[in-house]
UniProtKB/TrEMBL annotation:
Protein name as annotated: Urease accessory protein UreD
Family: Belongs to the UreD family.
Gene: ureD
Keywords tagged on the record: Chaperone, Cytoplasm, Nickel insertion
NADP among keywords: no
Organism: Streptomyces luteolus
InterPro entries linked to this entry: UreD
Keyword Chaperone belongs to the record: yes
Amino acid sequence: MSVPAGQAQADGGLRATARIRAEADARGTSRLPVLDGEGPLAVRRIRSAGREARVALVGAMSAPLGGDRLTVSAEAGPGARLDVTSTAATIALPGQSKRPAHYDVRLSVEEGAELRWLPEQLISANGSELRVTTRAELASGARLLLREEQVLGRAGEEPGGLTSRLTVRCEGRVLLDQELACGPGAPGGWDGPAALAGHRAIGQLVVVRPDLAHAPVQPQMLGELAALTPLAGPGLLVTAVASDALRLRRVLDEAVRRVVP
């Protein structure tokens, strides 16, 4: 028997889904025919100064906890522009269930559309176990700006277990498919000199634009803590580490200023 959305599962944990879809009208203004959230995944429309549709994810309750299964789906229809942010950091916490929590993000950017996915940080608290999966599917001429920020542990505590996989496909071809595992249970060396080297904040910035297929960027360091890498297609990746969330955001904001027109 299926579990009603937004309700607890019999063996502990919660299932909840948020759905967002933007569509462009005849004047090119993006509307939100679908804006729906449940349980801890509340969604709110934000005032826009232009023709884009803007949405904020609002944490309505503590989540994800052990055993939770949360899903966010955001779609930008043909020619639409959708900006998604969040009002606060997401904190993965231990729960009554010993099973890991799952947080799935599914992004779809249709022909000629643009999606800016810029949520606040994900914090992996001590004792938690979270598996994050982010999948972005882009059509021809689509544009994407995606930022991920992960903080290992709150101030003064050891991190929880965190596994994160990010996949970006454009016109059916893979631009990026990578996985990161940190904290208890992760393969040895994740915190060593060849990996995080003691840093506790990790960030990524993915940019997909049609012009990057014909004029790819050159690989380069962006200061001491960030690197820019061209992708095999119309995109680029910025990867950064820092000692804390504030410093990480500064590094990624500077990267945005450099690579986003």
